[in-house]
Amino acid sequence: MLLRELGPALGALYDGAPTVVLGPVSRGSLVGALTAAALGIGFVEMRKDATQATDSDRWVRRTTAPDYRDRHEVFGFRRDLVRAGDRVLMVDDWIDTGATARTARALVEDCGARWIGAACIVDGLTDPRLRHDLPLRSLIDIHRL
Question: Which residues form the Phosphoribosyltransferase domain (predicted)?
Fold first, then answer.
């Protein structure tokens, strides 16, 4: 029951009428796909250490700032999956440093698309300014767990 309600709940956090949901691997792919299905729009998986499947695939890639484990991750997706004019909502399970969301935003902008914001299940941001800058909306604040 809860899983069925998760996608609609995350999709309802924004009024920006997204055309694409972007979900970082691995749990962001699950909740992102649920959200995209609930909204009736497309889904793009943002992969770590993404490599081109063929020479004809054009990818956009970016490296994150340090994450919660002080790692720098390389994320990307096929360039033709996000187009200029798309309105993109990133969905993930948890946000801590905001490194993945900031990288997702840069990738979306590299494609000429419009970033709507980040929606997540749990907000554990260590820098509260990012809630406004991203913007971020969540279902649960870490301090309520």
Answer: 14-130
User: Are the C-beta atoms of residues 6 and 32 closer than 8 Å to each other?
Assistant: no
Whole-number Å distance between alpha carbons of 25 and 49: 11
Render pLDDT for 79-114 as a digit per residue (tens, 0 to 9). 999 999 999 999 999 999 999 999 999 999 999 999
Q: Which long-range contacts (CB under 8 A, 24 or more apart) does 46-53 make?
A: 46/22, 46/75, 46/76, 46/77, 46/90, 46/104, 46/107, 47/75, 47/76, 47/77, 48/24, 48/73, 48/74, 48/75, 49/73, 49/74, 50/74, 50/75, 50/76, 50/77
Using DSSP's 3-state secondary structure scheme, residue 75 falls into strand
